TrEMBL record:
Keyword Transport part of the UniProt annotation: yes
Name assigned to this protein: ABC transporter
InterPro entries reported for this sequence: AAA+_ATPase, ABC_transporter-like_ATP-bd, ABC_transporter-like_CS, MacB-like_ATP-bd, P-loop_NTPase
Keywords (A to Z) from UniProt: ATP-binding, Nucleotide-binding, Transport
Organism of provenance: Colwellia marinimaniae
Length: 222
């Protein structure tokens, strides 16, 4: 499995109270499988992505990415795991403004020690952004930035790609197109995709839809 979560519990401090945000959560995502994660605002979707990315400590339960357990890992091991096996597409893209589009796309692959100029160029071609390689992020439209963020995340050939509301700033036509490309690329790279979205249209193009509700996760469709 690219992602395996077993009996995950997570508590947050809410004012003076402790609140159980996630209770006994189990989830697995296979290589090349594309999964949507939906749920009301505040249900814990971003927290779950942060736990999977090793950005928040696991309180109880198990998470493994590409067969590597995060539960007992040190900060150094978590950072290594992120570089090697996890791609992240943030809602606001987080492109590096001082780097050109091409350098942004090469960045994650260089960090992972998997720099392959042809792979980056092929991704840019597939995403229709080859003509933008010499430009800088500040001069791009939202849809173009999103495609650059996708190319950058996939260029390191991650086993797992996490995307937090990646089409939130795009119009519907643009977002359907970007998601269709993302799903196709994840499948052809055998990368598991876990995408948080509020859009039923976006979720419908994924293999499975899960919903976070009342601290637990349930399968809506497959
Ligand atoms: N570090 C933290 N400490 C305390 N509470 C937190 C922390 N991180 C998140 N929360 C709370 O946990 C809950 C879940 O937040 P989270 O951002 O995971 O929700 P979400 O489902 O992603 O929401 P949205 O759809 O609005 O982005 C919220 O009530 C939030 O205020």
């Amino acid at each position: 499995m690219s992602l395996l979560i077993q009996s995950l519990n997570h508590q947050i401090i809410d004012g003076d109270n402790h609140r159980q945000l996630l209770v006994d959560l189990n989830l697995s995502v296979a290589p090349g499988e594309c999964v949507a994660l939906m749920g009301d605002s505040g249900s814990g979707k971003t927290t779950l992505l942060n736990l999977i990315a090793g950005l928040e400590p696991i309180q109880q339960g198990k998470i493994a990415v590409a067969g590597i357990s995060l539960t007992q890992a040190s900060d150094r091991q978590l950072s290594q795991l992120r570089k090697q096996h996890i791609g992240i597409i943030f809602q606001h893209f987080n492109l590096l403004t001082s780097l050109s589009v091409q350098d942004n796309i090469e960045f994650s692959a260089k960090l992972a020690g998997r720099y392959d100029v042809m792979h980056g160029l092929a991704l840019a071609e597939q995403l229709g952004i080859s003509h933008l390689l010499k430009k800088y992020p500040a001069t791009l439209s939202g849809g173009e930035m999103q495609r650059v963020a996708i190319a950058r995340a996939l260029n390191s050939k991650p086993k797992l790609l996490l995307a937090d509301e990646p089409t939130g700033n795009l119009d519907q036509q643009n977002s359907s197109q970007v998601v269709a490309q993302l799903v196709q690329l994840a499948k052809s790279n055998n990368t598991a995709l876990l995408m948080v979205t509020h859009s039923a249209d976006v979720a419908a193009s994924m293999d499975k839809i899960y919903r976070l509700q009342e601290s637990s996760i349930r399968l809506v469709t497959d």
